[in-house]
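Q: Given only this backbone (288 positions), what sequence would you predict?
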């Protein structure tokens, strides 16, 4: 009976250990794949992320939004001209140079508006250069290596059937939770790119207000928001670098149950920090 009991016990332990490793192995593969996608996605410019969507947004901006911005600029320039006349006591105290000033100011405004798309893309090109440079400095892999899993498996075999059964149930629950977090990470990264496309599609309208002394706050705030969204990628990369360091400590020693919950905690922390990167970046650039 002793030999039979030991055989059954080892058989049950083998099933539980294989089940736990299967849950966690697939779990880590999914999360690592998603985190790896983040690193590549945030380093892409709008034209590089999805050329089809980029072409659609560009055509929309240049054919639909730009004419509206031209009307706004016409109104702004006319308002500025009338304001100059009224300010000089209805031409009773007028200097010729103010007309040259208005012409030069309007010329610059038209030049900026006609090159709005190039200016916006230049912002993202600069941000991409910074992010790629930071990516070379922030090193670390989020992958759980076979050596780590082998060490974890050794610790599992030292546990009894009861603790292994409890750990198997916990790993199952954690697996569902981590997959939900995986969806959250997907939403954050792709949501940022959709926000970028939305911002760029309406770029000519706020740019048309930059020459106005009274309404240029709209254009200034837009530029700050644009920079905040562009450089949000750098904050996301920092979060990934921190996560890569933390996740490498999993299953390297100590209580296996604690290590598993720590892995989920690190991923929850990653998702929370990714959500916060948007508001932090906007606070840094002081957007309204």
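A: Predicted residues:
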């Amino acid at each position: 009976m002793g030999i039979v009991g030991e055989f059954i016990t080892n058989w049950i332990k083998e099933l539980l250990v294989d089940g736990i490793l299967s849950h966690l192995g697939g779990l880590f593969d999914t999360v690592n794949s998603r985190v790896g996608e983040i690193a590549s996605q945030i380093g892409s410019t709008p034209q590089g992320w999805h050329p089809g969507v980029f072409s659609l947004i560009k055509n929309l901006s240049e054919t639909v939004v730009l004419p509206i911005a031209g009307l706004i600029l016409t109104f702004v320039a006319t308002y500025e001209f009338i304001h100059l006349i009224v300010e000089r006591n209805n031409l009773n105290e007028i200097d010729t140079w103010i007309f040259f000033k208005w012409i030069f100011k309007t010329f610059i405004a038209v030049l900026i508006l006609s090159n709005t798309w190039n200016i916006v893309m230049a912002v993202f090109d600069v941000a991409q250069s910074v992010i790629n440079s930071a990516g070379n400095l922030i090193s670390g892999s989020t992958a759980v290596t076979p050596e780590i899993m082998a060490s974890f498996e050794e610790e599992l075999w030292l546990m009894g059937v009861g603790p292994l059964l409890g750990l198997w149930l916990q790993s199952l629950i954690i697996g569902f939770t981590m997959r939900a977090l995986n969806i959250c990470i997907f939403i954050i990264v792709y949501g940022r790119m959709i926000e970028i496309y939305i911002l760029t599609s309406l770029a000519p309208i706020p740019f048309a207000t930059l020459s106005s002394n009274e309404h240029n706050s709209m254009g200034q705030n837009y530029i700050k928001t644009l920079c905040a969204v562009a450089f949000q990628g750098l904050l996301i990369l920092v979060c990934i670098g921190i996560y890569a360091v933390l996740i490498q400590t999993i299953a390297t020693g100590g209580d296996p149950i604690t290590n598993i919950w720590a892995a989920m905690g690190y991923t929850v922390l990653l998702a929370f920090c990714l959500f916060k990167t948007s508001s932090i970046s906007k606070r840094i650039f002081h957007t309204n």
